[in-house]
From TrEMBL:
Every Formyl transferase N-terminal domain range: 79-166
Pfam families to which the protein is assigned, alphabetical: Formyl_trans_C, Formyl_trans_N
InterPro entries: Formyl_trans_C, Formyl_transf_N, Formyl_transf_N_sf, Formyl_transferase-like_C_sf
Domain Formyl transferase C-terminal, chain residue ranges per copy: 198-273
Origin superkingdom: Bacteria
Protein known as: Formyltransferase family protein
Cross-referenced Gene3D superfamilies: 3.40.50.12230
Length: 287
């Protein structure tokens, strides 16, 4: 099967999985990345090694028409971690599908991983679905579910999603897409989760220690935000413990070198890795 891939390194394993399944890439659609939260070096290097054309601008209908002119309709448009809604493939490609890191219809939207940890889901999943006119609403082609642990973090959940997405690409989608396409199932009612904001990332020390640390884990290397005295900082790592005290939540009660201990509702949170927030920085995250 010929395919055009639209995505970045976030779910780049789908690209590799389809190659492993014997598919032939004809074009890479990707986008500029900041090199902090988003990366595309791996998929771009792979496409260059395979001598596949690369496009950084948004997919337009004329781009799909050009692929049809060159390859007919016998190809698939595969989307995985692409921020823009893709239309115009029907009638010009045999298949159009998207890989989404949630157990649809739960968690439609830009980037549901943070909330999956925050809301303490016990199971999660990755879904491949037909590209539709609404974000993440198309019929389900395949889905893989897996367990989440009580200490789940953004990084562990991301790895689980990436591994599951590649397995779907190598297996049921890569080996049996036509059959899956014929048996695709409607999603029904679902939930849309909007892009995370700075407020979602901000630690609230009026909460208990477990809740504060869960928020730190939920954003992981994307980092949360905390107030230390008069300053705001990005928090990359924190630990904590329960202990009765008389401090006001949010009070800085101890410092040792760059380690800072802050009072929470039922104990203390120790911030061990952090960096100051520049006045010009804004926290827009996710695709």
């Amino acid at each position: 099967m010929k395919f055009a891939f639209a995505g970045i390194d976030f779910l780049g394993g789908v690209f590799e999985g389809l190659l492993e399944a014997g598919w032939t890439p004809v074009k890479l659609f990707t986008r500029p990345c900041d090199g902090i939260y988003d990366h595309n070096e791996v998929v771009v290097a792979r496409a260059r090694a395979l001598r596949v054309p690369i496009q950084l601008s948004r997919i337009r209908e004329r781009d799909i028409e050009a692929l049809q002119a060159e390859h007919g309709k016998d190809w698939a448009l595969v989307v995985a971690g692409y921020p823009w809604l893709v239309r115009g493939w029907q009638g010009r490609a045999s298949y159009g599908l998207n890989f989404h890191p949630s157990p649809l219809p739960i968690g439609r939207g830009p980037y549901p991983l943070f909330r999956a940890v925050l809301d303490r889901y016990e199971t999660w999943g990755v879904t491949a679905h037909v590209l539709a006119d609404g974000f993440d609403t198309g019929h389900i082609l395949a889905q893989e579910m897996f367990a989440l642990g009580p200490e789940e973090s953004h990084e562990t959940l991301l790895a689980k999603c990436q591994m599951a997405a590649r397995r779907l690409a190598v297996g049921p989608l890569g080996r049996d897409l036509p059959s899956r396409w014929r048996r695709a199932e409607p999603q029904g009612d679902g939930s849309y989760w909007p892009r995370a904001s700075d407020a979602d990332r901000t630690l609230d020390f009026r909460q208990d220690v477990d809740a504060v640390l869960r928020r730190v884990r939920a954003f992981g290397t994307v980092e949360t935000i905390a107030r230390l005295g008069d300053a705001r900082v990005f928090v990359a790592e924190a630990h904590g413990w329960r202990e009765r005290h008389q401090h006001s939540p949010g009070a800085v009660v101890h410092r040792h070198r760059r380690h800072v201990v802050i009072a929470a509702l039922d104990g203390y949170v120790q911030i061990t890795r952090w960096s100051p927030i520049a006045l010009t920085e804004a926290g827009q995250i996710g695709r």
